[in-house]
Design goal:
Number of domains: 1
Membrane topology: Multi-pass membrane protein
Strand order of the largest sheet: 1-2
Shape: globular
Keywords: Cell membrane, Membrane, Transmembrane, Transmembrane helix
InterPro entries: TM_pro_TauE-like (IPR002781)
Low-confidence stretches: none
Pfam family, one: TauE
Number of helices: 11
Subcellular location: Cell membrane; Membrane
Order of helices and strands: HHHHHHHHHEEHH
């Protein structure tokens, strides 16, 4: 059993991660999974959860938490009229299909494999955040199908494998085609809903009957951790929305990029 002091420390870390995740959900239109997954991975290690399911449980629980967080963030952004409803409607099928594809991969890949996937995508996301330039463009109009559908599927796949809400990926896609950053952020909150809900059920299916899971888990979702984090993220997410419409986010992008590269290094080190 872990020491009481260690449990208190990680309880504080969970609370802090929940607050940061909620803030990021509103600020960048992301679910905060990039913050939550590394924290959960350390927590489950402290609790001596089997390494074979530790990373899967971290990703699945993160997606469960993103469900209410992304819904609340999306509703707050939609109230401001900033959401690209047309893009969301066109992704009602491709994004969830990508997420279910991720669940199929998660059901068969090892913990080390899932950590490697997370690390590689985190490197790409971190570099993108550090090097992002508003003037970079691939066009002035979002592409139509089949390109749009393929992009939606990829966003769902990569996000499902990382346990994130897809905001960074969608922000990149929309801004590269000339969408205002605030519109991209607002729409990303809706993309998070399309990712988190099927991701929740996908990771329940992927982990159904798996051994080594802690109590109060359904598949790769641990409801105790989810219940502790969700209230914090719900309270903080609207604050992030207000910041998103008031702040220059470049410094925050740099900080988030550095964090992602640090997380990637941590997971790559664990594979050595």
């Amino acid at each position: 059993m872990p020491a009481v002091g260690d449990l208190i420390w990680f309880a504080a870390a969970l609370a802090g991660a929940g607050a940061v995740a909620g803030l990021l959900a509103g600020l960048f239109g992301i679910g905060g999974g990039a913050i939550l997954v590394p924290v959960f991975y350390q927590l489950f290690g402290l609790l001596h959860i089997d390494d074979a399911v530790r990373m899967h449980l971290s990703v699945g629980t993160s997606l469960a938490i993103i469900v209410p967080t992304s819904i609340r963030s999306f509703l707050a952004h939609r109230k401001r009229g900033a959401v690209d409803q047309d893009l969301l409607r066109s992704w009602l099928l491709p994004v969830p299909l990508g997420v279910f594809s991720a669940a199929v991969v998660a059901a068969s890949v090892s913990s080390a494999g899932l950590r490697a996937i997370f690390a590689l995508i985190a490197i790409l996301v971190g570099v993108r955040m550090l090097l992002n330039r508003q003037h970079w463009r691939l066009g002035t109009v979002l592409p139509s199908n089949p390109v749009r559908a393929v992009v939606g599927w990829l966003i769902g796949l990569l996000s499902g494998l990382m346990g994130i809400g897809g905001g960074v990926l969608n922000n990149t896609f929309m801004t590269l085609y000339g969408s205002p950053v605030h519109r991209a952020v607002a729409t990303s909150a809706g993309v998070g809903v399309l990712i988190a809900i099927p991701g929740l059920f996908g990771y329940i299916w992927a982990g159904w009957g798996a051994g080594g899971l802690p109590p109060f888990s359904t598949g790769y979702i641990n409801w105790v951790v989810a219940a502790l984090i969700i209230p914090i993220t719900l309270v903080v997410a609207p604050l992030g929305v207000r910041f998103a419409h008031a702040l220059n986010k470049r410094q925050l992008e740099i900080g988030f990029g550095i964090f992602m590269l640090s997380v990637a290094a941590r997971f790559l080190y664990s594979l050595s």
